[in-house]
Amino acid sequence: MRIIFPLIFLTTPALAWEFTPTPICTLSHTEPTVDIAVTYDHATHLYAIAVTSPDGWPDAAAFSIRFDGAQPNTISTTRHSTEANTLTVTDVGFGNVLDGLEFNATATAFTQTAAVTVSLMGAAPEVQKFRACATAPVA
Question: Is 31 left (phi over 0), alpha (psi -120 to 50) or beta?
Answer without folding.
Answer: beta
